[in-house]
Amino acid sequence: MKNTILIAILFGTSSLYGQLRTVTFRVDMSQQTVSTAGVHVAGSFQNWNPATSQMTAVGNGVYSFSAQIAQGTAIQYKFINGNTWAGEEQVPSACGVSNGFGGFNRSLTVTQDTVLPVVCFSSCTTCQPLPPTKLVTFQVNMSNVANVSQMGVHIAGSFQGWNPASTPMIKSGSIWSYTVALPVGQTVQFKFINGNAWGQDETVPAACGMGNPVNRFLTVPNSDTVLPAVCFGTCNTNCPVIPPTPKKAVTFRVDMSQQSVSSNGVHVAGNFQGWNPAGSTMTLDTASGLYVRLDSASIGDTVFYKFINGNAWGQDETVPAACGLGIPSPNRWFVMPNTDTILPVVCFGMCGPCPVPQPRNVTFRVDMKNQTISPNGVYLAGSFNNWSPKATPMTANGTIYSATVVINSGTTVQYKFLNDSTFTGAEAVPPACGVSDGFGGYNRVFNVTNDTILSAVCFSMCDTCPAQLPTSKVTISVLTQGIQVSPQGMYVAGTFNGWNFTQHQMNLVSPNKYSITLDLPKGEQVLYRFSTTNSPAGQELITGSCGFLGSRNLTVPTADTTLPDVCFNRCDLVCTSFSIDETAYSSLKAAYRNRVLSISGLPVGGVPSKLKIIDVSGKLIYSVDFHSTGTFTSPLELISGVYFIVLQIDGQIKILKLPVAFY
C-alpha cells in the first residue's frame, strides 16, 4: 500500500508558527469614571493607537476586546480610559515591563487562543472593595490677599494628583470652598493656590503643615466635615483685610507678519491672567498690522508673559534668552509702573521689531529614477508650507522632479520629498543628511540666504542616484498548507523594498499557493521573508539550511528565473511530498549510540544511496552519498532532540524518525 506523506506533518506544532490566534483583553473600570469616548486597548499588536481598538462593556464595569494576533508574537499593551494617551493607565512595575520612558506596559506572548484574566484599571489584580467615604469641605479666607487672581482660587493635593488647575473653589464673599468625598482614615496633603499654576501656591507655615515642602494635611474622619476657613498662607482663621493694590492699564503688542497666523487667533498669556493660553485674545489692528491687547496689572508687580500663535501651549513663541527670564524656557517680563503703559512692539519669537523680509526663490529637486511613481504624483512638504502633503506638487523633467518655493532670507527650513500626496509615501531621510523630526525619523534641512537651485538628490538618499543596475524578473512562490493566511492576504518583504510588508502583495494562483514576480538587480544579494499578513507580525523565521539571519537568501541570476516552490517557514525539503512503499525496506532500523549513527536493514550489493539528517526546524544537519552494503555506520555529533533520516535508495524514499537523548 502506498501513502502520500507531507514531511511538514512530522514537525508537529512547529508548523503552526504565524497562525492567527484570538486574544481577549479584559479590564475592570468599576472604580473609574469612564470617559465619554469609551475604553480602549492600545499595544504593539495595533501600532499603539489609543483610539482604534474600542472595548465593549460586558457587565459589572468590565470591558472586553478581542484581537487576532500571530502565534509566537510577544506583545506589550495597556488600557486607555478614553481615546487619547491622556487617559492611559499607570501599569504597576510588579506586572509590567519597562516602556523606556519611566513607565510600564503589560506584556504577553501569544501561544494559543487566550481569554486574559480581568484586571483592575492601573492594577495587577482584580479590583478590591473601596473603603467608605465622607464629605470634606475645604475652606480658605482670601481677605488677607491684596489681589486675588483673575483665574480664581484652586486647591491641589494628594487626593487629585497635585494638579494646580483642575480643582477650582467656589467663592462666597472672601471665603472660597471645595467639597469632595474622601476615604475614611486616609491622610491627605493639600494647599491653596491663588490662581491655577505652581508659583501661585501659598507658603504653608510648618506649625500647621507637614512634609518638605510643607503642605496642609488632614486625616479623614468618620463623619462629614466642614473644615475652618484658614487665612491663605497662615495657620489662623482671623484674617486681616488687605486692600487690593491699585492697577494700571498695560497694552501688549506683537508683530505676526512673519508667521502663518493660526485660525484660533493670537493670544497673550502670563502670570497676570493665570498663564491661560486661551484666555486673553489679541485683536488685529488693521491700521498698524499689529496684534494688540489692553489689560491691567498691579503696580509694582513683575509681570511675566509670552505670545501664543493659537490658543494652546506648544503654539507659544520661543523667547530669546537675551530678552527673557526663566529656565529652561525664558519668558518676556517687565515691572508694572505707576502709570498706564504701552509696551514696545516686538516680533513674534524675537527681542525687537521684525526685520524687513527678503523673499528668495528656492528650487528643490529630487531624482526618482529608482522609484515607481505614485499615480498621485510627487510632492514636497516642509516647515514652509505647514507640512501639508498636498500643498506643493513637483514637476517632472525626465526622472528629476522640482518645485520652486518663495522663502524669506535667513529662514532655516526642514523638508522631505513624498512619493504620493500623503505621508505614507514620505521618503526615509538618512541620518547623515538629516535632522531629527522628533518621531524617530529625519528631515532634510536648508538655511535660505539667496536665490538657490538645490542639487538633485536621490529619493531617500543623501547624494545623487547611483547608476541603475540591469534587472531580472524573478518569480517566487510559497505554499501555505496548514497555515492560516489573514484576510489581508500573503505578502513578501526584504532588502529589495526596505522590509516594507505592505508594498508587495502576492497573488493566489492555486489553492494554498501564492506567487509574485519581482524586478531585482542582477547579481544583487537579496534577503526576504514571506508574511501571512500586511505587517511584520505574520512574518516567517527561517532557521533551516536555506536561511541566513532568519531570512531566505538569493543571489539574483542574470536571466529571468522562476524559483522552486517553498513552504512557509520551512526550507525546500520540508515541502516535498514523498511516495513511500511501506513494504519496501520495512526492516530498516536506525540507532544512535556512543555518538555513532547506525542503520540496519539496508539492501546489499552496493546499491547507490543518499542519506540526509534534518532537525525539527528543517535545518540540514548531515548529508552523505554511499553504496549500500546492508548496514551503514558513521561517527556523528548530535545533541538531544528529534531528527528525521531521509534515505533515497535506488530511487525510492524512506523516512525514519530518530530520537536522541543523553542520560
From TrEMBL:
**Which domain of life, per UniProt?**
Bacteria
Entry-linked Pfam families: AMPK1_CBM
**PANTHER family on file:** 5'-AMP-ACTIVATED PROTEIN KINASE , BETA SUBUNIT (PTHR10343), 5'-AMP-ACTIVATED PROTEIN KINASE SUBUNIT BETA-1 (PTHR10343:SF84)
Task: State what protein this is by name.
Answer: CBM20 domain-containing protein
| Domain CBM20 intervals | 130-234, 354-466
The upper taxonomy is:
Bacteria, Pseudomonadati, Bacteroidota, Flavobacteriia, Flavobacteriales
Q: Which InterPro entries match?
A: AMPK1_CBM, Carb-bd-like_fold, CBM20, CRP1_MDG1_kinase, Ig-like_fold, Ig_E-set
Entry GO MF terms: starch binding
> What family does this belong to?
Belongs to the 5'-AMP-activated protein kinase beta subunit family.
